[in-house]
Amino acid sequence: MAAARFHVYVQPRASRNEVAGLHAGAVKIRLAAAPVDNAANEALIEFVAGVLGVSRRSVRIVAGAASRRKLLEVEGVSEEQIAARLRPA
Which of 37, 54, 71, 75 could potentially form a cystine with 62 if both were Cys, beta carbons 3.0 to 4.6 Å apart? Predict the structure, then answer.
């Protein structure tokens, strides 16, 4: 299965990790981690991997590592599975 790519908009320093809907066409994800020493990026990878049921190494930040808007690539899931699993709770 080929890798699926999608955009996320990250809000660091939130009260908890959660999917919070859409923001300008990207999946909005709130993270409790601060954007210091790559902590928010690591938390994002761990959170997305957990939600999608894949290993951490299957999730990569392709673009925007220093930005709130990022492009993620995930191995082992389809775009339809991503859309279904990354709905707000």
Answer: 71
Q: What is the pLDDT of residues 6-49, one digit of tens each?
A: 999 999 999 999 999 999 999 999 999 999 999 999 999 999 99
Q: Alpha helices, DSSP H only, in the chain? A: 39-52, 79-85
User: Parallel, antiparallel, or unpaired: how do β-strands 59-63 and 69-74 relate?
Assistant: antiparallel
Q: Which helix (H) or strand (E) holds 26?
A: strand 26-30
The whole-model pTM stands at: 0.93
Name the domain count of the chain: 1
- By CB atoms closer than 10 A (0-12, 13-18, 19+), residue 89 is exposed
| Phi, psi for residue 29 in degrees, rounded to 5 | -125, 125
Which residue segment(s) compose the domain that 56 sits in?
4-85
Q: How far apart are CA 64 and CA 51, in angstroms?
A: 21
Q: For the domain that residue 36 is a member of, what is the CATH number?
A: 3.30.1200.10
